[in-house]
Amino acid sequence: MRANNQVALVSLLVFVAISSCNGGQLSPWFYRKSCPQFGDIVRKITWSKVAANPTFAAKLLRLHYHDCFVQGCDASILIDSTEANTAEKNARPNRSVEGYEIIDEIKAKLEEECPGTVSCADIVALAARDAVSYQFGRSMWQISGGRKDGRVSLATEATRDLPSAGANYTTLQDLFSGLGLNHIDLVALSGAHTIGVAHCVVFARRLNFTGKGDVDPSLDPAYAELLKTQCPGRPNPATTVELDERSSVSFDSHYFVGLRKNRGLLGSDAALLTNRRAARVARSFQNFHVFMAHFGQSMKKMGDIGIKTGNDGEIRMNCRVVNA
Q: What is the percent of the chain with per-residue pLDDT over 70, rounded to a whole number?
């Protein structure tokens, strides 16, 4: 019995050590004493912005995604470029990312109330949650605090690490699994495309698949013709199309309904149907309650990617600039 107890104790210690290395320092109550106004401030500003312009929900959610997939969730996407360095936000996949000014406004208010206390990384994570939650009038998943801000931001890493809009399933699976996310997370997080828009140039190849005017065979022909009317001829870089047809500002499960009809806008959307397990999950996610339960879980997992705690990072005074 003593030997078994010793093995159990060693196993427990190993589990605790692993948990600490994987975000064990994050907590939903991290700012309870140091900045109890944190949640209220982020929610008030975020909800006011989304109320005035519903498209901000998708923009803040995308900002969080693009941050976490490069260097982890450390607000490195917020850092401005300098003469000596081209930062993540100026990488080609990030040039259409928006919402920075909202993060700046939240940070400025928090610096008034709790100077040097709240990280930009935690603001990005909470603002994304609150932006989606606005339409429901309540928080749709729990956010833990305690992330530190990174000191490195490289455009080359964003270009390398962000998933392409035309990626096939194998590429997506490899990328997600490398970050600790499984096939359910991949499908659930793709469901964020139930809100927002995409520029015509991002999916133009699907409308001219082999360069001879033919359409991607995985795209519904009627939907393809509609897209051609919205993105005629040579794509205008400024023209956008709803990611989820006729439902781009409502966070719902309509994306998966369209996906099952081969009306996923991006190649990476259509790729979900090329894998049997992923397609089965996508089918179940047509039920909003099933989708939302898994989406919240996957968002929490994504929010833990590569987090920096303790001395690994810093609390930036200005989210756009690394501390001197």
A: 93
Mean pLDDT (whole number) for 57-73: 98
67-107 confidence digits (pLDDT tens): 999 999 999 999 999 999 999 999 999 999 999 999 999 99
Q: What is the pLDDT of residue 322?
A: 97
- Residue written as tokens 């359910």? 184
* Residues labelled as active-site residues: 66
The separation between CA 300 and the C-alpha centre of its own chain, rounded to angstroms, equals 11
- pLDDT, residue 233, reads 79
Of 142, 149, 132, 135, nearest in space to 39 by CA: 142
Which residues are 314's β-sheet partners?
A: 149
Distant-in-sequence contacts of 210-219, Cβ < 8 A, 24+ apart: 216/267, 216/270, 218/262, 218/270, 218/273, 218/274, 219/262, 219/263, 219/270
Is the distance from CB of 109 to CB of 178 less than 8 angstroms?
A: no
- The pTM for the full model equals 0.90
Domains for the chain: give ranges and CATH numbers: 26-162+305-312 (1.10.520.10), 181-302 (1.10.420.10)
116-131: b or e for each residue (b if 16 or more CB lie within 10 Å)?
eebbbbbbbbbbbbbb
Output the pLDDT for position 212.
Answer: 83
